[in-house]
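Follow-up to my post from last week.
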Amino acid sequence: MRVTQSMLSSNMLRNLSNSYGKMSTLQDQINTGKKITRPSQDPVIATKGIGYRTDLSKVEQYQRNLGEVNNWLDSSDDALDHVGQAVIRLQELVTDAANGSKTSDDREKIKVEITQIRKQIQDLGNTKVGDKYIFSGTNTLTPLHDGTKFSDSLISTGLEKEVKMEVYDGVEINVNTTGIKLFSEIDAMLGKIETSLGDGSEGTVIGGYLSEISNMQNNVLEKRADIGARQNRVEMMENRLASQEIIATKRMSENEDIDYEKTITEMITQESIHTAALSIGSKIIQATLVDFIR
Amino acid sequence: MGSTFMGLETARRGLTTQQSALYTTGHNISNANTVGYSRQRVNMEATLGYPGTGLNAPKIPGHLGTGVQAQSVQRIRDQFVDRQYRQETSKLGYWETRSNAVSQMEDILSEPSDFGLNTSLDQFWGSLQDLSASPGNASTRKVAIQKGIAVAESFNYISKQLTEIQGNLKNEILVSTTDVNSILKQIAAINEEIQAIEPNGYLPNDLYDVRDVLLDELSSYFPVEVTYEKSGGNALAIAEGSMNISIKVKGDPVNVVIGKDFATLTANTGDKKPITDAEEYQPFTSFTVTGSVNGKVDNNEIIYKDLEANKGQIHSLIDSYGYGEPTDKTGFYPDMLKNLDELAREFAKAFNDVHKTGTDLDGKQGIEFFVSKDQNNIEISASNIAVDIQFETNSSLVAASNSQFAIDANGVPIKEEGNGANALLLANIKSKPLFATGTPPSGGLNGATIQTYYQSMIGQMGVLGEQATRLAMNSATIQLTVANNRASVSSVSLDEEMTNMITFQQAYNANARMITVVDETLDKIINGMGRVGL
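User reply:
Got it. Predicted complex:
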C-alpha cells in the first residue's frame, strides 16, 4: 500500500485524540470516584444506581423514623414508671391510713399527700415529646387532663387511637400507649380515696381500696410490659436496618464506584502511552526526502 | 530519408513534455495540504513513428521514433473507494448526530446523581415519612410541601430544557437543509463549467476535486447516489463528465442534480407547510423537492418513511426532533417528553387520589395537592405540574391524617392532629404499582411504580446513547480506514514527488544534452564539411 505523509499525520492526530479521550474518561472517573458520568456509558450501572440510591435513602429514612419511635417508647416507659412509683406510694399511704388507730387528723395529713399524688398523675398523663402529648392517642395537641377534667373521647375522637410509624417496608410499629382509660381510672380512684379520707370513714372502708390499688398496679405493669416488648422489637429492627445500610452502601459502591488502584494505574499507563505517541508523532512529521536532497 | 533536423524536434518534444511533468509535480507539491486534492499525473505517450504509412512514404529501413508528447493530465482517483467513503460518511453523520442528541439529554436529566429528579422524589418520600412521624408539627408539614414543590420544579425544569433543545434541533434541521441546497447549487454550477471545458479535450481535474469535496459534504447529510453523464464534443475518454445526484430513498431515488439543473429542498410539517422558526412543535412530515423551472429535475416529495434508515445527519436530526402527527409525539425527544408528562400526570394523580382521602390538620377533607399551573390546560403534565398555591401559605392543608371526616355538635370538624396514617400512605405511593383504571382502562404506568418507570426511562435513554456512541465509533473507524485507502491512492506523497522531480529534471537535462549533441553533429556538417585543406 502506498503510504503518504497526510495519511501518517491524520492517523497520528486521530490516535492522539483517542488517547486524550481515554485520559479524559479516566480523569472523570478519578475525580468523581464513579465508573460512569452519564447513562450511555453503561445503562445497566446507571439504572441500578438509581435503584440503589433509593434503597439507601429508604434505609436512612427508616433509621430516622426509628429515632422518633424510640423517643416515644422511652418517654412512655419513663412516664409509666413514675406512675407505678406513685401507685406504690399510694399503697403505702392507704395501708397506713387503713390502720384503725389513725385519728381523723392523721388521715387528713395523708389526704394532703394523696392530693399531691393525684396532681402528679394528672401531670404524667400530659407527658410531652416535643410538642406532642403522647398519651392522647392521635389527638397529640390535646392534653389528657386540662387542669379541671379529663378529655372526652366523644369530642377528641382520636384518644383511643394508635399512632403508628413505619420502620421498614410495610412494617409499622405502634408507638403510643393510649392513656385515657388508665389515667382517668387511677384519677377516679384517687378521688374516691380522697373523699373517704375526708369524711371520717372507717379504716376497713379505706383498707377496701387496697385491692383496687393493686389492680391499678397490674394495669400499669401490663402497659409497661407491652412497651418493653415493643422496645425489643425496635431494637431488633435497628440491628436489621444497620446491616441493611451496610449492604445497600456496599452494593451501590460495587455497582458504580471505581477501584482507585486500578484506575490510577490505568491512568499512568495511558499517560505513558500518550507521551510515547507524542514523541513518535514528532518523528513522523520530521523528515521527508526534501531534507536530504540539495 | 529523414529530415536533417528531426533529432532536434524529437529532443524538443522531450523537453516540453518533461517540463510539463515537472510543473505538474510542482502543482502536486503546492497542493500537498489542500483538502480533497488528488495528485495529478501527466500521461506521456510516444508520438507516431516515422515514416507514416502511405504509398509515397519514403522507404527507409526501420520505423524511427519521433519522441514523446503529454497526452493528458489526469488525477489519480478511485471512484469505488469514494463511494464507500460516502456510504460510511452517511452512517457516521447519522450516529454522531444521534449520540450528540442523547448526550445533551443526559446532561439535563443528570442521572445518576445527587441532584436529579430521582433524588428530589426520594427526598419528597422521605419528608412524607417524617410527616407521618410528627403530623402535628408545622415545620415537618412545611418541609413536605417544599419538597413537593422541588419535585414539581424538577419536572418543570427537565421539561423546559428538553423542549429548548428540541427547538435547537429544529433550527439545525432548517440550517442543514439550507446547507444542502447551497451544496446542490454549487455542484450544478461546477457541472456547468465542466460541461464547457471537457468538449475541448481537457480534463478539469481541480474542478473534479472541488465537486468531490462538495459531494462528500452532501453525503454526511443524506445518503446519495451518483451517476455521470459524458460531455459531448471532443471530450477525452477518461473525462468524468457532469455529475447527476439523487437522494437514496425507499423506492426510486429522487433526483436533485442533473447536469447544470438542481433542485431545492424544503422541510415540511403537516399539510406540506414549511417548518418555520416559530417556537411551537412542528413535527417533520416530508421534504418538498422543487426543480428549477424548465430544468431537467422534476418536482418531487420525500416523505418521512421513505428516508433510508440510519443514514445522514438530517434523518438523525428529524428522528431526534420528532416526526408524524403533532399529537403522536414520535421521535426521540418527543418520546422522552411524552414519558415525562405521563410520569408527572400519573404521579400527581396517584398522589392526589390518596391525599383527597385523608383529612388535614383542621379535620377537613384533603384537597388536590398537585395541580396544573397552566390555566388553559388543566391536565397535569411535566411542564405545568405545581403544588397548589394554598399550601404555601397554609401548611395545615396537608392531609396527613386518615381520620374520617365528621363534625361535632358545633359544626366544627373533628380533628386528629397526631394521626399520620395518610402521610404514610402518601409516602408509600413510591412503591405502589400504577395500573390503568376505569372503562376503557386509561392512565397508569403499565403496572410500573413511579421509581421503576423513571428508571426504565433513563435505562432506555442510556441504551440508545450507548448504541449511538458505539455505532458512531464503528462508522468513524471504518470511515478512517476508507479515508486512508483513498489517501493511499490520491494524496500527495512528498517523497514520491521529490523522486519524480529528480526523474523529470534529469530527463529534461538529458533532452537538453541531446539537443547539444544534435547541434554538434549539425555543426560538423554545416561548418566543418567541404573545407578540405582549410
